[in-house]
Write a structure and sequence with these properties.
The complex is a heterodimer. Chain A contains four helices and 30 strands. By secondary structure, chain A is mainly β. Chain A has a five-stranded antiparallel β-sheet with strand order 1-29-28-27-26, with no helix packed on it. A five-stranded mixed β-sheet of chain A has the order 3-2-4-5-6, with helices on one face. Chain A has a four-stranded antiparallel β-sheet with strand order 9-8-7-30, covered by helices on one side. In chain A, a hairpin with a 5-residue loop joins β18 (285-290) and β19 (296-301). The longest helix of chain A is centred in the middle third of the chain and has 17 residues, at 139-155. Chain B is α+β, with helices and mostly antiparallel strands. Chain B contains four helices and four strands, in the order αβαβαβαβ. In chain B, strands 1-4-2-3 form a four-stranded mixed β-sheet. In chain B, α3 (129-149) links the parallel β2 (117-122) and β3 (157-163). In chain B, α2 (99-111) crosses α3. Chain B starts with 9 loop residues before the first helix and ends with a strand. The chains are: A mainly beta, B alpha+beta. Chains A and B meet through β1 of A and α1, α3 and β3 of B.
């Protein structure tokens, strides 16, 4: 393909880029945590010489989490760039509990050294000091890494600012599967189709995305490499092929096939070989989701008369019903710590995202929309991305696992749906 | 580091209140029927309560006409030109009004062994996308089983589901939903 870069290809590329720009998500925070940590991020010395404002990206990441409040560093002169330059009285007087300072220094080989220090302004101690040597094109990635370190040091949880998300857009009859940075920037279209796309899901190693396409007038599951863009059919059996779910080792998936009649769950190798039926029921079994340890799966079944969530222990074949209340519980997704799951629940006339704890079986409804669906949990377990509806359009939204922080992710005049949060970057 | 300070987040509160007001203003009225298509309904066999099952052997005048002039599949006077089966809310039960049509297609497949049919199941827009794929599959399977009783073979019919992904009516009310709870019959080559 690369050997034949003709005008058609260039035109296609331009159209593709134009399309991507329109699909950019804008994230609005619409509710914060119970407590917010006041943090001052001092613009890094030398960063104004580069087109990407590093500290603005860091600050936006932290503010978007709903857990931080940015303290304006204006008026502190000279601006500190190293830990030893920080006068803690300047910051405690402004109400900042934490301070970030740093510098951006060109190197002789054209690369840039980015150094930063995270300081506890209350205890007057240094919490982190990290230096990166990067090309200017890596500034956004570097900013996200800095935000991840700050988030982890101050909250105790892994930061997810360096992760990616996948989602599907619909514009007229044009469907696209896109991958973007977690803050919505740099959306890249990886699949375009004139027929619906659904159920994208990341391999846990972050190299591939499995999804369902109706391009052949029936649901067929594909696996696509993010590095090469190459895709292969995972399951195209007689009937419907859907609901792909990766095993933690990224080598196998659970899928729903109707090839033997009814919708039933099978295991399949990531290359499409080795199909093996997991269970045999006369009911609908679908929407498998592996536990983080790979030893069990959650799935949706109507074997009890209404859609409910069940857990299959793979070693024993034992099946246990996990949702008791309500007449519609579906789309289970494990929390990454294995202690619970989020799911789609109907309450009254509304569909909302809820969370259940395995130990206590306590359920908390997290969202208040009318047609919420397709929950996807951030790899740190703190935020749940889901599809919602606003003004007749599909939008994405996010809610913290305690229900306090809320975000809306919208793309003007485009339906956005089917979010899938990628794994932590290794 | 001390624990996080209680948030002095007046702007946040304002934003929340504003958004709540906006959402309240935009929210569409709750659908009249709040339940979803979710219940397991045991598939019925053709002719339940109508005696149609026994009529299978006698035919109904539309069988065996593949050799006639024109294609009966596309003759608007033929019941074979009818291609959609609509379902009630929350149901995979085939209503009586569709039974003659399903019988005709079953017999057509019996007499035209080269014919191949795809039955596409569809659902309304409420609920999980993947669960709706499974529900649509069950609707398609139900009609296939009826056609097999009239002589169609398993190999002639593939049942697939489009879930809620291909609504015929883009609306968000019961009238639209009723149009979208549907099986479509598509013959190979069409």
């Amino acid at each position: 393909m690369k050997r034949h870069l003709g005008p058609t290809f260039l035109l296609a590329l331009v159209l593709c880029l134009a399309g991507s720009a329109r699909a950019q998500l804008t994230i609005d925070i619409i509710g914060g945590g119970a407590t917010t940590l006041p943090i001052a991020i001092v613009p890094f010395a030398g960063e104004a010489n580069y087109p990407y404002p590093l500290t603005q990206i860091v600050g936006a990441d932290l503010a978007r989490s709903g857990l931080f409040r940015l303290i304006d560093p204006a008026g502190v002169n000279p601006r500190p760039a190293r830990a030893e330059d920080v006068r803690f009285a300047d910051w405690s007087g402004r109400g900042a509990d934490a301070v970030v300072v740093g510098s951006v220094t060109p190197q002789s080989d054209g690369r840039v050294e980015v150094r930063f220090f995270l300081l506890d302004a209350v205890k007057q101690t240094q919490l982190a000091a990290v230096s990166y040597v990067v090309t200017p094109s890596q500034f956004r990635a570097t900013a996200h890494q800095i935000a991840d370190i700050i988030y982890e040091k101050l909250t105790g949880d892994a930061g997810v600012f360096s992760t990616r998300i996948a989602y599907i857009t619909k514009q007229g009859t044009r469907y696209e599967l896109l991958v973007a940075e977690a803050d919505g920037y740099n959306p890249q279209t990886i699949v375009t189709s004139n027929e619906p796309l659904l159920s994208p899901t990341w391999s846990p190693d972050g190299t591939r995305i499995a999804y369902v396409s109706l391009e052949s007038k029936k649901p067929i599951i594909y696996v696509q490499s993010l590095a090469t863009g190459q895709r292969q059919v995972l399951a195209n059996f007689r009937g419907s092929n859907s609901a792909p779910a990766w095993a933690p080792d990224s080598n196998r998936l659970a899928v729903t096939l109707s090839r033997e009649g009814g919708s039933q769950i099978y295991l399949i190798n990531a290359d499409g070989s080795g199909v093996q039926r997991l269970m045999s029921s006369g009911a609908i079994d679908t929407e498998a989701n592996f536990a983080p340890d790979g030893k069990s799966i959650l799935f949706t079944s109507d074997r009890g008369g209404s859609p409910q969530i069940y857990r299959l222990t793979l070693a024993t074949g034992a099946v246990e019903r996990m949702t008791i209340e309500g007449s519609y519980n579906a789309s289970p997704r494990h929390l990454p710590d294995g202690k619970g799951f989020v799911f789609l629940r109907r309450d009254g006339g509304n569909f909302n995202i809820a969370i259940e704890d395995f130990a206590t079986r306590q359920v908390q409804v997290l969202t208040q929309g009318t047609l919420d669906e397709s929950p996807s949990v951030a790899p740190n377990g703190k935020l749940i991305l889901y599809a919602s509806e606003s003004g007749g359009h599909g939008i994405l939204a996010a809610v913290s696992s305690d229900g306090r922080v809320k975000q809306r992710l919208t793309a003007a005049a485009i339906d956005v749906r089917e979010p899938a949060w990628g794994p932590l970057r290794k | 580091m001390k624990p996080m300070n209680p948030g002095s987040s007046m702007p946040m509160l304002w934003a929340t209140a504003l958004l709540a007001a906006l959402l309240a203003g935009c929210a569409s009225p709750p659908p009249e029927k709040s339940a979803t298509e979710d219940q397991t309904v045991v598939a019925t066999t053709p002719g339940t309560g109508t005696g149609a099952a026994t009529a299978g052997a006698t035919g109904s005048g539309v069988t065996g006409n593949a050799g006639m002039q024109g294609n009966p599949l596309h003759d608007p006077r033929s019941v074979l030109s009818k291609r959609s089966v609509y379902f009630d809310f929350d149901s995979v039960v085939v209503k009586d009004e569709y039974k003659p049509m399903i019988e005709a297609h079953g017999k057509y497949l019996q007499t035209t062994r080269t014919a191949k049919l795809t039955i596409q199941g569809n659902c309304d827009e409420r609920g999980s996308r993947e669960y709706n794929i499974a529900l649509g599959q069950r609707r398609a399977d139900t009609v296939k089983r009826m056609m097999q009783l009239y002589g169609a073979t398993d190999a002639q019919i593939e049942t697939v589901s489009l879930g809620k992904e291909k609504p015929k009516n883009q609306g968000h009310d019961e009238a639209a939903w009723a149009e979208n709870r549907r099986d479509d019959l598509v013959y190979a080559g069409e």
